[in-house]
Write the structure tokens for this entry.
Amino acid sequence: MNGKKRCEKGTFSPDGMRAEILNPFVHKLELDNAYDKIRTAIFTVILLPFRVIVICYLIVTAWFLACVGLYGLSEDDLRKKPMTGWRRSLKPLICFIGKMSYLAGGMAISIRGRQASRREAPILVVAPHSSFLDSCIVYATKMSSVIVRKESMDNYVGKLINYTQPVYVWRDDPNSRQNTIKEIIERATSKEDWPQVLIFPEGTCTNRSCLITFKPGGFYPGVPVQPVTIRYPNAKDTVTWTWEGPGALKLLWLTLTQVHSSCEIEFLPVYYPNEEEKRNPKLFARNVRDVMAKALGVPVLDYTYDDCRLIAKAKQLGIPGGAAIREVAELRSQLKLDVANYEVDLIETGLQGTPRWLTLEQFALRMDVLITVPCSRLYKIFVQPSINLMYFPDYLLATLFILYQHEPLSLLIAYGFKIFDGSGTGRLDITSFEELAARTLNLGPEDAHNLFRGADVEKKEYITYDEFVAYATKKPELSFVFTRDGSQKVKIQ
């Protein structure tokens, strides 16, 4: 080994202070004590029905007004020119009804600062994006034009969204990104009196612990933008909707059974880009993010929507530590383990004789690193609480998933055969295979058992990787194992 590896890389907030390793895609919410449970149960019976009835009445009223305002207009009409006259006059009324629907649900919306005019800032940049309840910003900004997927318009609230004259994203259009940017530029630089364009540049929901990477799409026009922040300063966070955490219905239920909740919207001063920022949208986006992070008092992390997709795929496949997979990658980087992919060398040279259950000291020694904060955090992700030890194969599989995320899943399974092969013979018995299948294919014991029996043609009570491949390639439901982008849960008959 080349001596001990030290952590030098970190994540920094705008003021240069080192930030913690955070996972912005996880939110934990539980009713902690008997008082909370009893109160929620009581309010579910006596408060929730009343609130739901009032909210539905208000939403239907707003929807009806939107239908009236859109009468006689096609989607092409909405994209060609801004609404005028009586149609535009309905917007303040719809916004008022929208705000009242939030108030009926117990959420008071307070606004700080002044919304700039379209002439001052054609684009509003909103962050952090953490909840479906962030839609209140549309009402608070006088129905600014949102950016929305076209396929999501085919629902009940489609009329309300259409009334903002949105910028459409067509998922099945290969040129969708370029066309969306083009339309944003046209809207932002038009001399006509369009609504301001409202963007959530993070592109996905986080838990508000930080600001992740801003997508540059809304910054291509190179025009002044107004940053807008959203806060939910409540004792219990019942609004955060992330990749790992409560679902939308549970959050809505818990929010509507709170006596009172708050949302604070703050309009920050308009940000005027310099010449360099106009030429470089990514720099423009990064600098605006720094301003907003400073106002919010949170760090910035270079996490992206692609990280969310990676986390979702890891969870779908049952990869150990799936929800924290981005954090694993960051901590490995801090420990310099990503420089030479140290774990792959360990597996290739053979793991026979290596304990599967490790203490922190054993893990640090095995990985040839010092016991630092990043080392301890990485260790804790894979610790089994019942025995307070790390299961080393779990760590290795998570690492390999990160390293080979763009390769076919079969490569990860091939390494898995080496990880779980305690004999060094290149074969797995049914117990070891079930462990591997649970952690790479998300299979339960019964499905893994059936898969093993199917591959064990000669009934030897063990299979090799080649035997697994020979069987799996004949099963249509396992075709995703051999493609670069496939991931799904399978049931083996």
